[in-house]
Design brief:
By secondary structure, the chain is mainly α. Helix content is 78%, strand content 0%. The protein is built from 21 helices and no strands. It is flat, with a radius of gyration of 31 Å. Keywords: Cytoplasm. GO terms for molecular function: actin filament binding.
Length: 711
């Protein structure tokens, strides 16, 4: 009964960014409500408790609709252009809510099926029609409210642009102070509106772009103040004018990007062509290669060859870079050559398997697939190492900000020659940092981090020349306090971006090491002993190279299973579904165990591995089993036993894993046996998960289709 109440409150506070997403979101909520209301048709006996529950559902729906409509009507009164449309939608929603309340008013009736009083039991289609009307009208209200929010943001942007034009043209300090005060208020309003919108966005890529644009506007507001004051103080100074123009230009671009994100459009209808990173290219390539296990005919060898060529072209960004070490360059070139050879071998076996599907050929194909994927993983690891080691070295080298300090000192001294010398050094530093951002983008691992890398690159590209023009202005006017303050502001922006790069580098490394999302608390490894007193007495045991080699094959199988699980979860339309969430979490943790078999990642010792398996992975599996039980209540009676059987299987496997992880192990041999058992049982759970996800997805679609047909 809480679903609809939450929906209504959510609709008031959090407006989504497209009509399609409204409909999907609301429809899911209504399906739950309708299920609750009409599922009783197959139950011959209805207790007082059941009747009261049905009545409470109807009352909750009506109450939530009433609150929602009140807000909708208030919005309509404030926006005359959409008032009529909004009012009609609100009236329809209120009428539907009242109808549902009337049809579910059954708790006080001795005979709810009585013809004298129309209820859900005598008019089963009536509540469905009312719910359908409610779905339609609430969606319409949300869409209209969304249009109003977009309109508010555009109007706010236009105000900011108009005031910026006035600021560019002012010629006196008094006029500037007055207009800038107005500009500050308008920027605060714009920041609030876009901040709310950013929180509402479901697309992580758009959210990252919005965050980048808002960060530019926030930093540029202070730059605009000091740059404009400097230009007013020194109106004939060319470098001061260039400095100011750069700030205004960057703010306009950021404002335009915000509107593009909000309206989901681009100027002149052009499509956004984001550059493909090596990571995303390798991921897509591996998915295609691994897809050959299921279907030998779903793509051509030319497609695979083209995909590899594109990836290897991108590796030239590393091999052609003056900042890539000789060792990394040689390894990347060797792996690129090996990747071509592995693909040639794969294509050869693949073509033979298409003509003759023998057991030997299929085994050869499996080996070729594994070798090709392994080679691509090695290439990914090598470019990651090249990018992150360069970034770490550069950030460490530039931590002292010596060039910026020198520019401030020589600027105050009015030493134009020294300023020119240090501006050249800053330009070199800028080129290094820009190159660093480009290489990091290739290995960032996620789209939001890619966007952050692109934003950082733009920041260094723009801020570098602005620091130079500010330093030149100060050198020409060494006694100017405002010119000195202006240089300080731009230098602080540079230092802030360098600091942000350290955080970005840490996030990129976290993704690479298997921490696929900082929001998932269970991926943070607890200290041994925190949840289990027995852990304190155990000393961590590291496996030697030979023992790691023995479990490498098992680890590779685990890695392939995580890829399969990730592929299955990506097919779900509702990424917020509880089953998907638990599946993704288990995949992330299994991936950490795979990295352990390679001597990499967050799990450094065997004790870390045992804790991950017992306390975290198995617990997550048990939660998934509970979600499967909940789903079984919604599916058809014929399909329920199968789902419950799979859930019990999962619970049993998780218990076996916990027992294996808890077992005492003294000595290296016993410890290795325990490690092997934990990874083997984790692999078994992941194998079952690969079967469960498509089954659950299919069953949920059936449930939704049946309810929609009923409506």
């Amino acid at each position: 009964r809480m679903y609809l109440s939450l929906l209504m409150l959510y609709g008031v506070m959090r407006i989504h960014n497209s009509e399609k997403s409204f409909s999907l979101f609301i429809e899911q909520c209504f399906l739950q409500v309708i299920t609750t209301l009409i599922n009783h048709k197959d139950k011959p006996k209805r207790s007082d408790k059941t009747l009261q529950a049905i009545q409470r559902v109807g009352q909750a729906v009506n109450l939530a609709v009433g609150r929602f409509v009140t807000v909708g009507e208030a919005i309509a009164n404030e926006n005359h252009e959409l008032k009529e449309e909004m009012s009609v939608a609100c009236i329809e929603a209120r009428r539907a809510g009242e109808t549902i309340a009337q049809l579910t008013d059954v708790a006080s009736l001795d005979h709810p099926e009585s013809d004298s009083h129309i209820t859900i039991f005598t008019d089963k289609t009536g509540v469905v029609k009312a719910a359908r009307l409610l779905l339609s009208s609430v969606t319409k209200v949300l869409v209209l409210a969304d249009k109003i929010v977009i309109k508010q943001i555009i109007t706010s942007r236009n105000k900011v642009l108009a005031t910026m034009e006035q600021l560019e043209k002012v010629s006196s300090f008094q006029e500037f102070v007055q207009i800038f005060s107005q500009f500050g208020n308008e920027m605060v309003e714009f920041a609030h509106l876009t901040g709310d919108r950013q929180n509402d966005l479901k697309d992580e890529k758009k959210k990252a772009r919005m965050a980048a644009s808002r960060a530019v506007l926030e930093k540029c507001t202070m730059m605009l103040l000091t740059a404009s004051k400097t230009c007013l103080r020194h109106p004939d100074c060319e470098s001061a004018r260039i400095n100011k123009d750069g700030v205004f230009h960057r703010m306009r671009l950021a404002l335009e990007q915000v509107i593009e994100i909000v309206t989901d459009s681009r100027p002149n209808g052009e499509n956004e062509m984001a550059p493909i990173s090596i990571y995303s290219g390798i991921k897509e390539f591996k998915n295609k290669v691994e897809g050959l296990r299921e279907n030998l005919y779903f793509l051509s060898k030319e497609n695979l060859s083209t995909m590899l060529e594109v990836i290897l072209e991108h590796t030239e960004d590393f091999t052609d870079s003056a900042y890539t070490s000789h060792e990394h360059r040689e390894h990347i070139l060797e792996l690129s050559k090996q990747a071509k050879m592995e693909l040639e071998q794969l294509v050869s076996v693949w073509m033979q398997a298409q003509n003759q599907k023998t057991k030997d050929l299929m085994e050869d194909l499996e080996v070729a697939i594994l070798k090709t994927c392994q080679c691509m993983n090695e290439l990914k690891r090598e470019v990651h190492g090249a990018a992150t080691s360069l970034a770490a070295d550069l950030l460490k080298y530039h931590t002292d900000h010596m060039v910026l300090k020198a520019l401030k000192i020589t600027g105050v001294e009015g030493n134009l020659e020294a300023v020119a010398e240090y501006t050249c050094k800053l330009s070199e530093q800028k080129e290094q940092l820009v190159e660093m951002c480009r290489l990091l983008r290739h290995v960032s691992g996620t789209e939001p981090l890619e966007i952050t890398c692109i934003h950082a690159e733009d920041t260094f590209q723009v801020t570098g020349p602005q620091i130079i023009s500010a330093a030149e202005t100060l050198a020409l006017h060494p006694s100017s306090k405002i010119a000195k303050e202006n240089l300080e502001v731009f230098c602080e922006a540079w230092e802030s971006q360098l600091s942000d790069m350290s955080l970005l580098l840490r996030e990129i490394n976290d993704v690479f090491e298997g921490r696929r999302g900082e929001k998932r608390v269970y991926l943070s490894l607890p200290r041994p002993g925190k949840h289990n007193a027995n852990l304190k007495a155990l000393k961590p045991v590291k496996l030697d190279t030979e023992e790691q080699a023995k479990i490498a094959k098992l680890g590779l199988e685990l890695h392939l299973l995580t890829s399969d699980v990730d592929s299955e979860t990506e097919k779900w339309e509702d990424q917020e579904n509880e089953i998907v969430q638990h599946g993704q979490g288990m995949s992330s943790m299994a991936y950490s165990m795979y990295l352990f078999t390679r001597g990499e990642g967050l799990l450094k010792t065997t004790q870390d591995l045992f804790h991950q398996a017992e306390v975290i992975f198995a617990t997550e599996g048990t939660k998934l089993a509970s979600a499967l039980h909940a789903l079984s209540e919604q599916v058809h009676h014929d399909e329920k036993p199968l789902l419950l059987l799979e859930a019990e299987k999962l619970i049993s496997m998780c218990k076996q894993l916990q027992i294996a992880a808890k077992a005492s192990a003294q000595g290296k041999s016993a410890t290795f046996t325990k490690v092997d058992a934990c990874i083997l049982k984790t692999r078994n759970v992941m194998t079952l998960l690969c079967q469960l996800l498509p089954l659950c997805c299919k069953l949920l679609r059936k449930v939704s289709a049946c309810l929609i047909c009923t409506i």
